[in-house]
Amino acid sequence: MALSSLFRKKTVQDILKQVAQNETDGHAALGRHLTARDLTAFGIAAIVGAGIFSTIGKASADGGPAVIFLFLFTALACSFAAFAYAEFASMVPVSGSAYTYSYVAFGELIAWIIGWALIMEYAIGNITVAISWSDYFTGLLESGGILLPQWVQMDYLTASNGFRDATALMQSGKTYANLSDGLKASYMAWTTCPRLGSFHLVADLPALFIIVLITALVYRGMKESRNASNMMVVVKLCIILLVIAVGVFYVDTANWTPFAPNGVSGVLKGVSAVFFAYIGFDAISTTAEECKDPQRDLPRGMMWAIIICTILYVVIALVLTGMVNYSLLDVGDPLAFVFAKLDLKWMSGIIAVSAVIAMASVLLVFQMGQPRIWMSMSRDGLLPKKFSRVHPKFKTPSYATIVTGFVVAIPALFLNLTMVTDLCSIGTLFAFVLVCAGVLVLQNKPNIPRGKFKTPYVNSKYVVPFMLVAGLYYAFNFNTKATMDFITNATQINSPTAIITALNKQESQKVYAYLVGLDANNSTVGTPDLEILMSQYTSKPTQYAAVVAGLPIVDSLKYESGLDLFKHKIPMWIFLLALVGLTIWSFKENLSLIPLLGLVSCLYMMAELSVWNWIYFTIWLLVGLVIYFSFGRKHSKLSHL
């Protein structure tokens, strides 16, 4: 085949004809049951979950009350992307989301890449939510006096890594009693679990339970899924409104001072966690064929979901930071924590139950999205035909739903929460970037049928270059040191924990002897703890640098420099180079500002993720390309035209 066949495109007219011919080809139509209200509820179900009940705590602890600006910034970035999604959804009202949109804008190869990325996004997102649900559920059981063994409620990687770090810290002098709760749980799970030879049988069984339950519900039908989602949304909105109504009477405005204790850097520190709190609105677009009026209702559902959730996030953040000092909120269950802190135990119990319901509703929406991506790719011939099979009675993509259950359930037993959260974020952001770029590519093309919704046009010709120049001026005049350190790849000092966990027993003894000689605060009295000994200097960067410089260990354990340091900056360099290219493109082509800002915002958030997430994501895409060139390219329906 010619190279040009890799970028063969589908037209909007052909896609709409294909939907009409699906029943003739053996693909039954999906049931149309959803209205704008249902779509808004699905959006709220997907968005209001981890953000309200978990990540808002860490973000508030980093940014203080000013974290509300982070929620507003992230909502704005997601809104830019939502405009692009809404325009495409109105133009191409079929299942497939960004995959189908990319097929129209960029061609088959890019469509495959984004479809494969979406499969990862929804699968990893489901795994993330299932693990979080398991944490809340086991906590709820524990509060009721039911204690499950640690090895049946923790994933394999967390237990393994936690055992390693706990061992290293205890080797450096820290006692088991002084370990964090997370490390204690990991150590206990690893040391008490049954073994098969040298393999430790550690698996998150509650996560498996909820995935099986939700998959069965999604398989059963859209009506049932809609009704369950609507019910869960009503419950958790009532709980959140109750939290606000009760909490507002305990707000002490003195807790809002200082408003931004850690400055802009503190606010932006939680950007990835807060973004994860917003993902899910794009899953609405996968239900296009099950909407009664998709061209009208999809854009409305997306926008209302983002607006409602942003208002809730901002109000909750203000109430939480007003009830207790922001520095106390770095906990996994901030809502329950603040009420327990104020001795309102009955509220903590209600919140714990609602968190379990909220997480289940998020999982429901994510678990609906992925099978519909499989189905759309199968309809185009890029995946085996059975993935597009629709159940004759339930009118759901039955085979794809079952496969999704296995794809999510098995990794959820073993994968680490932090890893899957970041992988979900990068897959989602990649999809947002391509959808925004797709709107820009199609904006001036004639003969493209337009839907009822179109993104308002604002010329970016001079706006984006001005913003770039303003950003450079700020970086070099008000953030000079950080900017120059970034450009010159200046050596960075490792944190106490990073240094200590990298030491062997002999090195720990040498470092301990050295720090004892410097210890001016008698921190060695009682338990010899290297982490305490080193951490006492971190509040004074110059003194900490001098202490680290004198440690009797090799520099590679004390510092990060050269290629080891530069590799973490590669994503940001990619963003900066892309920003220059986008600025030139906008100036030459008079691009629309809103989708361009969405593209830039999402690309920036991708750059904030670690280089390892980029590497893992690239490996996933390469696996997908192998499948495409071995199966999809030959069986594509466009190859037979």
TrEMBL record:
Keyword flag rRNA processing: no
Regions that span the bilayer: 39-60, 66-86, 198-219, 231-251, 263-281, 302-326, 346-366, 399-419, 425-442, 462-479, 570-586, 613-631
Main location: membrane
Gene3D superfamilies: Amino acid/polyamine transporter I
Compartment(s): Membrane
Record's keyword terms, sorted: Membrane, Transmembrane, Transmembrane helix, Transport
GO cellular component assignments: membrane
Residue stretches making up the Cationic amino acid transporter C-terminal domain: 593-636
A single GO molecular function term of this UniProt record: amino acid transmembrane transporter activity
Membrane topology (UniProt): Multi-pass membrane protein
Protein name per the record: Amino acid permease
Lineage: Bacteria, Pseudomonadati, Bacteroidota, Flavobacteriia, Flavobacteriales
